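Homework help thread (please don't just give me the answer)

Our assignment gives two proteins as sequence + structure token strings and asks us to describe the second one. The first is just a warm-up. Here they are:
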Amino acid sequence: MSLMDTLRRWSTGRREAKLIQMLNGSLPVFSQFGSNIYASDIVQNCIDVIATEMSKLQPRHIRNTGDRQDIPKGNINRLLKFGPNPLMTTSEFIEKIIWLLLMNYNAFIIPIFDSDFSTGSERRTYRGFYPIDPSRVEFLQDPTGVMHIRFYFSSGVDFTFPYSDIIHLRKKFSVNELMGGGASGQPDNSALLQVLQTNHMLRQGLERAVKINAAVQAVLKMATLMDDDAQRAERSRFEQLLASGDSAILPIDLKGEFIPVRSDAKFIDKETMAFLQQSVLNWFKVPLPILTGEFDDNQYQAFYEKTLEPLVIYFGQKFSRATFTERELDTGNEIVWYHREMNYLSTTSKVSLLKTMGEQGLLTDNQKLALMGFPPIPGGDRITQSLNYIDVNLVNQYQMQNKSRAVIDDDE
């Protein structure tokens, strides 16, 4: 079954509904989002870095019960682990929604599920999660006050779903009441476009300078007045001498003077180019060492906390709210996006981490092996701990026992 067939099956259809009236009096109809900044290689590289790093996340359905945190067995975790839909793996799914979000400032994911009300409350069985890229969206409200969203696609089809069932991710959610981006619900890239246009003009000028520098090697000065035909003939004769000469000496009569042109083209200074590039990197919060792959532990940690961590937290909130019913949320169900596979630590830092966490008994043998890039071993679920540590609840008892022994030794 194709994606469109799946959406058609689960769409609520054209129910009696009307467009929502926004607070500013406009209608909530949003057309295809802009993409003109993505011709820039720097922009594409920045988005690709973020999408690649985020694709390492491992989303999991967990249930918090008091002090415990369980991973329920069920189809949600199976979908999140192996592939949210038949068309893509989990990594591809994450990469897709990151590109859609950073390109459009809005990303829509449609969960497909069956509802069961036999127990008196809704229980959902999920079939898949599908990211979509509509050409236009409309926000509607039915007579009961329930908000719906209608998606239009370039093929001419449209589908309508309850908005509460849709995972709607928004970037720079500010002046518009429903959509991310600017007031029109589209990316507001005007400031970035100015930088990219300047960068483009400078690079075009650099290209022309290189061509001119390579093309003009000398000037043939005519000592007499000649018409156009005579000048062309003289130039042709000079070029033939260049092409056929066996030595570096050219025979020229008294009418011409050969003047070589020194290759000294003036190019754009390094500081200007670096400033323009850094402006784009700052827009996407991607440091240059991250872009080139020449980062250390501290640089990646700063990149994670500044750029990736807000997305990790945001994804958990949005997916949890749309995936679970109110009752399921109240009983501790949520989707957490774990980032342990973002293995950026150097070997020295890994060894230090193994020593600290290993001595505390926080890692299994297989977890220690995985941190160093080795496969698991049979019986690797064993947890070992250093004897140099003691349970805080036993500290007083241990000290009292030692004090009693010291008193006995003194009496003897």
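The one we have to describe:
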Amino acid sequence: MQKHPVKVHPSKALLKREDQLAWKMAAVATDKVAVEKDVQAMIINRIIDNASVAIAAINRRPVVSARGMALGHPRKGGGTVFGVKSATTVSPEWAAWANGTAVRELDFHDTFLAADYSHPGDNIPPVLAVAQTMGKSGRDLIRGLATSYELHIDLVRAICLHEHKVDHIAHLCPAAAAGIGTLLGLKQEVIFQSIQQALHTSISFRQSRKGEISSWKAYAPAHAGKLAVEAVDRCMRGEGAPSPIYEGEDSVIAWVLSGRTQADSKGRKTVYDPVYYEVPLPAPGEPKRAILDSYTKEHSAEYQSQALIDLAFRMREQIKDWEAIKRITIHTSHHTHYVIGTGANDPQKMDPKASRETLDHSIMYIFAVALQDGRWHHVDSYAPKRAQRADTVRLWHKIETREDAEWTRKYHSRDPDELSFGGRVEIEFNDGTKIVDELGVANAHPNGARPFARDQYIQKFRTLTEGIITTREANRFLADVQDLARIPAGELHVLNVALPAGTLLESKPGIF
């Protein structure tokens, strides 16, 4: 990997495009290096993973609404829509919208955490929708997704959006645009402009994941995928983009992220601070392997809760009486404390009537239910009746998080064997006794007790789709997806998963 310094430059500097991050990203996208076998295998795993969680969410209201919007934009030979028979196709940006919402709704697919947060599996719906529409092959899709995962994860390694309250889709949209560029074999110039348009149009803020969290949490990455498809379409037609989008005087870095310009006391001159970011990218000819550094979820909850759910399962064996607990303190990283913990200062995170989307971002609620139930279910664990159970509310309100410098350090560690997303939990009882335990990574993590491999992805698919699709459809999809590299051009509709006739809910009417 090569590290590329990225900073703000004044307009008069006339920064060469060869020195711009977006151009370098486009170079990665056009590099024809082979996709290695283990990367291909993981891409298949993540397509299975996405289909699992999408079908499990298929009749939830946000997904039904998104599907209804997409079906209002039919296109012959377009993209398929999860749940709908493959003969029905829609315009690719709307397929990306519907399928991206389905994938994201349960917050149950893959993750990568570093300087910022990400769900790189959000790249799959837009790249696949374009691949279906443009008659591409399984090998083409593999190449496109290798690029999207690589660039998305590389941006997340280096550039923190969260500290500036910018939503993490600002890394997703440029990566998806680049992956579409690879898929279609576009020239570097076109991909360069597409990346810049994608970033420019996808800046939004983290209020979508704070306070009263709504269905927009699922829609936001789907919207980024839709924007990426549209950006590439425009640039293929010869249109340009604001440039340089990362380094410019009035760019994203200059005014939204850490490169804010400063004027002197009389407002007469602008000061440009030194390099703020170093973005790692593969060198020419270097394989794109970033997907292997990401990890999926065993439990339907925000990733930073995964290890703590497993820890709750373990600690509950030592507890006989929930009412005997005086307090529970979770010592964890800065991000966990401030995003899903009490450090967020969100009263909604302690509200028994909060939305599923909010409860999904409350480690206090999640830990209480996991501790009491010894299981985590993507529907039952969030049911209003479950959230409002009196003994659970009492336990839930005894839980607080605290930032711990050592857990924050391990959260940001560059050593994969030390990288941790869990915490240490102290459970104090009314009689003064305590039990203390800790867990660094979830059981399903590559370094965990039970790392996910192909068998676990298939089991997750069968578990989440049981009773929703037929066994025949499940077997058909699993056979086709595992033969991804051999799917010929024009046949990628086989990666869709359809429900039996009459089982899809219809949305309320809208404009489309």
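TA reply:
I won't write it for you, but here's a hint about the kind of observation we're looking for: The chain has a mean pLDDT of 94.
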